[in-house]
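In the previous chapter we treated chains in isolation. Here, by contrast, the input contains two separate entities that must be folded as one system, with a combined length of 410 residues.
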Amino acid sequence: MGRGQPLQSDENSGPVTERGRRTRRKLLDAAKLEFGEKGFHDASISDITRRAEVALGTFYTYFESKDEIFRALVRDFSDGVKEAAAAGISASATALAIERDALAAFLSFAREHKEIYRIIDEAEFVDPASYRAHYENTAQRIFERLKAGGATGEFRDDITEADAWAVMGMNVFLGLRYAVWAKDDDAIEDVPERAMQILKRGITA
Amino acid sequence: MGRGQPLQSDENSGPVTERGRRTRRKLLDAAKLEFGEKGFHDASISDITRRAEVALGTFYTYFESKDEIFRALVRDFSDGVKEAAAAGISASATALAIERDALAAFLSFAREHKEIYRIIDEAEFVDPASYRAHYENTAQRIFERLKAGGATGEFRDDITEADAWAVMGMNVFLGLRYAVWAKDDDAIEDVPERAMQILKRGITA
């Protein structure tokens, strides 16, 4: 400990050195594997540091406890979902295409980080406030997108919060089925288009 | 133990006497409160029997372990969701009305049994096979309904499994928001109609 460490490890401002940021990232990536494989109760700080290939004492420069790195990991995943969606929709031409591309980006993210479901879901028990914040924040972002589509006349002008929770639910369960529980013969690449068709014209003939 | 007890307690066929069925029901209702409040790990068989007002030994006439009553409770909830939806749609006039009424019945069920989310979600960790079976079976039922609507020409004729998972996701997250996390000023009674509008014509203007 000591050399090249962050000047402080407050979880909001984070490490101030580039080396500190890399070490914190290594710990979070190791925690993702550890919590994802073992679940919160069986995971251990010593196994997280072993996976991260850092000294046990180094852990405490960044996080105070197993609870704290778990909370940080939930926030990290929540930010990852947000950033993946934002990157996915940067070139989307219409409000409908934004929803299709946001779902496609989420499915890619969930396929790359299959632990996300287990970890976010376990937060319901380990850290209920983070669990609820993740979904409330995600629904709020979707609500803003849908209202923006309403403002341009592409979406209905009476979009409600319920519409946003409905869209989020579609996306979460399509991710569960086609990213986490994917089968070999699934036409995964068709899924965002199918979901967009529901948003475009429902499921009626 | 002994008097009025079921002749056998195999979990598939269940108790054979009416008194046995009532006792098993009391244990499941008590387990719902116990697991719902404390979670699986902190719940205890002795507190379940205390809540059910039956002798501790009686528990083992019906269930072998805490794991077994938890699994039975997940199946019981899964059956409850299925039966509530079936009752809700018995008089529905159209395929769209079936989806609206099924959601309304699910929201009522979830408001009456708010523990359902916590218990089904904890099954992801305590009993992953039951967790997956619950959602796969529910999606399959929705898929059959949507295909039936396709066969009569009310829904599109190219309904896929992804459409069913999308509808299930909408319903699950509308239940999370408007049954479990309901706020005082929510217009909960409007939610099934809002969801049906999405299925009818999407969210486009």
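The longest helix of chain B spans residues 18-42. The radius of gyration of chain B is 19 Å. Compare these points with the single-chain example from earlier in the chapter.
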